[in-house]
Amino acid sequence: MAEPRTYAELQACLLAWLDDSAANVNPAECIALAERRLTRLLDTPDMEGKTTLAADSSTIDLPEDFWAMRDCSLATGAGSALEPTSPAMLRTAFPGNRPGCPKVYALSGSSLLVGPAPDAPYAITISYKQSIPALSDQNPTNWLLAKHPDLYIAASLAMAEFRGWNDSRLPMLKGWYDELIAEVNDAGKRARYAVGTIRMRARVTDGSAMTPRAPGRPAPGTAA
Fold first, then answer.
1. Helix/strand/coil (H, E, C) string of the chain?
2. What pTM value is reported for the model?
3. I want to staple 112 with a disulfide (CB 3.0 to 4.6 A). Which of 51, 60, 121, 204 is the partner?
C-alpha cells in the first residue's frame, strides 16, 4: 500500500496493517489519540506559531491551537518582553485597581493573563508551540501527515493496542515508534539551529612575511 496522504487513506492503511477490518478498533479514535501524544512529544519548527493579540483587559483568549509559550512581548517598544509568572503572583503584585503598561504574564487554562491590567489598548505578540492540527473529513491532511506519514502510522497503531490488538509485533512497533519520534525531533533541531561544522578560514597573504631576509636587507616597502 502506498503511503497515506489523506485522512481517509490513513484510516484504510491502519486497517490494512491490523489485517482485520472487523476488529474492535476505531481508526479515527486511534488517530486522535496519536495526535494528542505526538503534540506532547514532538518539538519541531513546524509546530512554531506566532500571532498578535489585542490586549484591552487583563485576560486575553489564547489561540485554539496554543500548546506552550515560547515568548511574549508588547508588539512595539524597546525592552518590551513580558516576564513569566504564576497567576497567584500576578494577582498579588498587580491589583486590578492599578492599571498600567503590562510587564508580566501568566497562563491560566486557555487564557493569557497580563499585569498590570492595561491602561490603554495594547498589542501583544506571542510565539508559541502549536498543537498538531487534527485530521478530519473537513481537514484531510496536515504538515505531519505530509512530511512523516510513517510516524502517523506507527503512532496510531500504538494506540490500537489499547483497543484489544495485542500480539508479538508490539515490542517491534514500540521500538519503531520511539525511533521515528527521535528522528523527527533531531531533524527539527538541525533545522532550527542550523547545526553544522564550523570551518576556520585561513587569512591569505602575499607571503612576504614568510620570506627570510638577508642580514641588513630592509623589509619590502621600507626605506633602505
1. CCCCCCHHHHHHHHHHHHCCCCCCCCHHHHHHHHHHHHHHHCCCHHHEEEEEEEECCCEEECCCCEEEEEEEEECCCCCCECEECCHHHHHHHCCCCCCECCCEEEEECCEEEEECCECCCEEEEEEEEECCCCCCCCCCCCHHHHHCHHHHHHHHHHHHHHHCCCCCCHHHHHHHHHHHHHHHHHHHHHHHHCCCCCCCCCCCCCCHHHCCCCCCCCCCCCCC
2. 0.79
3. 60
